[in-house]
């Protein structure tokens, strides 16, 4: 039994919808929720973990960055491994490894152990996500059900970040920061049980090979970029650790593109990103993550260190982000099938831009309800709006490239988040240091000034990215879906 999707025929995918497809949605959405929670659950726990493990400030930032880097750096390889091993097996291996890495991190006795666990979480998570998207794309081929399924998935995906922060605050305040890692164990078991019940084994995709050289080049290049941005603050932009890593990272990524053009089984077929709608969607997700992850990082410390919130109150303060995300998903889902892609992505990005601009106006004595809540609400609304559109656009008509095309959305998000946190963290740190030299007695004001400058820089970047996305996609028809 075969089906045609886009320009490829997939002999291993059914034409009749699986009767367990909605249970499969629950299972894979739980798996993705697990990974989404861990992208932010340690944010609120960072001050406590830093004190417990005697962690330096630069190492503190890497607790967030190394997860995003491991996840984003290996997602493309995870997409190919999903095709090679089968979606069901990839899900089970990924969930098992994620649970073990979480247990290892919860038992950490020093920063190196925690950072290793976070990196392993990201790597095993990268094996899960492509299989999640591949399962959804195959299980819901009909337009009406597809829109509903991706709307539910988008709600879970979008709300995970805000829920992660809130859950991290509750666990840190009432139990211990280590429970931000241990909580993954029951969630992973529940997701694995759902996969065993609802996701049927499928024959492996024919002719799939693992592009080992491409995987090494992509991961090395991305890691070098993040390393360079992270060291720009303490060492300076011209230092070998900064400039050398940045230049080296760019050269390695250029080599990656060269290899992909000549490979018979590329890790990332260039046709995936050269499609104008997909390419624009990837840029949109990369851009939103650059601003969103940095905003979450800054506001975590603003609420606790400046406003004096407890971890649980700071976590609950992030709930408007989740509310905004869910509203954005709900509003945009019915529009996807009948609205040009760029007319969906641009408003979402501009909404995030407005939220980041407001972050640039927050002061030491700003109140939560009038100054902080609007930032969360706007960033959440725009993020939910963009993510659902991008996920649906990326996997629609991708055929044999579905897993990799979907993985590129998460790759864009995680790499954008890691680079954004590193680069904007450097901008904030540099601005804070400059302010302190001029006003030595104003530590809190200096910290907030750094957040302001970084927020405005992120807003300016998002504004430019919006224009670029609009032009790259160009005038286009609405998403064409198979009847």
UniProtKB/TrEMBL annotation:
Key word Transmembrane present:
yes
Protein origin, superkingdom:
Bacteria
Any stretches that span the bilayer, and where are they? 21-42, 62-79, 91-109, 121-140, 152-175, 181-199, 211-231, 237-259, 280-303, 309-329, 341-362, 368-388, 453-473
What is a single Pfam family found in this protein's UniProt entry? MFS_1
Keywords assigned: Cell membrane, Membrane, Transmembrane, Transmembrane helix, Transport
Chief place where the protein resides: membrane
Identify its membrane topology class: Multi-pass membrane protein
Q: Does the keyword Chloroplast apply?
A: no
Where is the protein localized? Cell membrane
Q: Tell me the ranges covered by the Major facilitator superfamily (MFS) profile domain, including all copies.
A: 24-477
Q: What is this protein called?
A: MFS transporter
- The protein's organism comes out as Nonomuraea helvata
